[in-house]
Amino acid sequence: MILILRALGLGDLATAVPALRALRVRYPDERLVLLAPSWLAPLVELIGGIDELVDTADLAHLRWCGPAPDLAVNLHGRGPESHRLLVGTRPRRLFAFANRAAGHHDGPSWRADEHEVRRWCRLLAWHGVPTDPTDLGLRRPAPGRTPTGVTVLHPGSKIPGKRWPVERFAALGRQLAGAGHEIVITGDAAERPLARRVAQLAGLPGHTVRAGRTDLRHLAGLVAHARLLVSGDTGIAHLATAYGTPSVVLFGPHSPAHWGPPPERTWHRSLGADGGGDGAERDGAERDGAERDGAEPHPTLAAINVDQVLVAVAEVERTVRTTGATAA
Predict the structure, then answer these.
(1) Is the whole model's pTM more than 0.90, yes or no?
(2) pLDDT tens digit sequence for 146-194
(3) What is the rounded radius of gyration, in angstroms, for the C-alpha atoms of the chain?
């Protein structure tokens, strides 16, 4: 049995897909058990190859009562807390970054300035597991009753510093609707008032607001069959990358070089300069899903105006028309 720790969010799990797939290929007969939040179960299904999901909301909630694994893999962070928790499961082997504080020296060194996808692929490659960092695709849900060909606006984020101003999202929605886009506004239940505000300011009908009415599987289907996504640097942006859906992603405070779509995929655009501190923060502390961002949009995000986003939308749509390029 192989025990894999990634007790984080949607985007975090999506960036670990190539590493998870590599483990499945390298150990085809082993049982893969993923320690991650249970609400991510629909995404785990869409990834495929995971035999069991054990609900682990964060490091404080890791309670492993099963047998000692043959191998434990730390895809959560650099340690030491996550290393020690996995050592506590009594694995025969541990794949993890070297961390002196945890007493673990058998692994590569952590690099702060590294894309999240390549970080975990490099960890596995160091341990002799071949990886393909481009293997980001997810199974595509059948559309069913999910609207297709829509433009998805996702104004929310659990981190206030990653939210582009609501008035600008509304202005964008108004302009896109006027240009013939069918708009859908997404978010979780807590973000429904925000989505309603965007619709109200944009003069869009109430049925465009799907925030709080879409579970993770339906959200994946919506993005998979969408015309376009515009969002901040949050989990839904990684769904667009996985499905080859054209997207414009607004960054701040973290860098697109660390969390953005692959640069070779020209049907995605990332706006916003490197906010600084991204690598340093994650290098210096264990990742536990917590972020330390202010209540206002980060300055690099606040500097993005509506015209810049409209130009980026035109660019990605022109790329799709002229090349037919998508990843899916």
Answers:
(1) yes
(2) 899 999 999 999 988 899 999 999 999 999 999 999 999 999 999 999 9
(3) 20
| DSSP bridge pairs for 71 | 2, 93
* Residues β-bridged to residue 95: 73
Tally Cβ neighbours within 10 Å of residue 28. 8
Are 177 and 154 in contact, with CB atoms under 8 Å apart?
no
Tell me if the bond preceding 80 is cis, omega within 30° of 0. Answer: yes
Q: Confidence band (pLDDT; 50, 70, 90) for 275?
A: very low
User: DSSP assignment of 281-302, as one string?
Assistant: HHHHS---S-----SSPPHHHH
pLDDT tens column, 80-134: 999 999 999 999 999 999 999 999 999 999 999 999 999 999 999 999 999 999 9
SS3 state at 52 = strand
Domain annotation for the chain: domains and CATH numbers: 2-126 (3.40.50.2000), 151-323 (3.40.50.2000)
Instruction: Mention every residue, 6+ apart, whose C-beta is less than 8 A from residue 79.
Output: 96, 97, 99, 101, 102, 104, 286
> Which residue intervals of 80-186 are DSSP H helices?
81-87, 116-126, 166-178
- Helix axis angle for 166-178 and 306-323, nearest 10°, is 40
- Cβ-contact 32, 2 below 8 angstroms: yes
The C-alpha atoms of residue 117 and residue 131 are separated, in whole angstroms, by: 11
Distance CA 44, CA 128 (A): 24
Asked whether the beta carbons of 157 and 238 are under 8 A apart, the reply is no
Partner residues linked to 248 by β-bridges: 230, 269
Report residue 42 as tokens: 């629909």
